[in-house]
Amino acid sequence: MEPLALHLLLPSRTGRPPLPAAAVPLPNSRRPLSGTWLQAPAQLRLSSVSAVAAEDAPSASAPGEEEGAFDWLDQWYPFAPVCDLDPGAPHGKTVLGLSVVAWYDRGAGEWRVFDDACPHRLAPLSEGRIDDKGRLQCVYHGWCFDGAGACKFIPQAPALGPPVHTNPKACVASYPCVVQNNILWFYPRADPEYKDVLQRKRPPLIPEIDDPEFVTVYGIRDLPYG
């Protein structure tokens, strides 16, 4: 295979624009080329290729730094239609791999969404019950939690002993939630800085659901994933 060299066509005296660079077989003899074809210097060939490579190479960016990247945790997710939820019992679901439990706080008259795990032995709170004081009670050892996720009662703790139920490790994570369009929505971040996320971002609004001229039919389907 003959070696190739990059050649440039110089402008002629007729005023016509020069033709683009072309790769032509390198002559076997060392005599100078005739006409207007000249062999481009090696420095020019390398710089041209480097410039093209630098221009075509995509800029590397760290994951999540793309402009407008979708944040799966910065969204509101529907838990269930309120009409499908029994206010007298906790309800467990898995959303985006996150196990959560919804229950009705009679004291505040609002629905709550917690981590579906008791901080004591990680027993599912969705298998517990609502006690006579309207608190969410774990089925395993009977720990009771209020609407903010704070532990209010531990049956095994001595009545005259230290208030161990006030320990921060005895609390359960509580997620921001709201009822909109007769659907219970929750925000999957329980850190304190997201407590007032509802003032910054609300769930998607579907006006037709609240419009009496429309008939709404709710349905939930579990889909396999992973």
Profile the largest sheet: 4 strands, antiparallel
Write down the CATH topology of the largest domain. Rieske Iron-sulfur Protein
Low-confidence stretches: 4-10, 21-26, 29-38, 42-54
CATH architecture of the largest domain: 3-layer Sandwich
Provide the residue-averaged pLDDT: 80
SSE pattern: EEEHEEEEEEEEEEEHH
Tally of domains: 2
CATH class of the largest domain: Mainly Beta
Strand portion: 15-25%
| CATH superfamily caption of the largest domain | Rieske [2Fe-2S] iron-sulphur domain
Going across the major beta sheet, what is the strand order?
A: 5-6-7-12
Distance between the termini: 52 Å
Structural class: alpha+beta
User: In angstroms, what is the radius of gyration?
Assistant: 35 Å
Brief summary of the model shown:
The chain is of the alpha+beta class and 226 residues long. It folds into two domains: 4-10 and 17-54, no CATH class; 77-210, Rieske Iron-sulfur Protein (3-layer Sandwich), CATH 2.102.10. It is 10% helix and 25% strand.
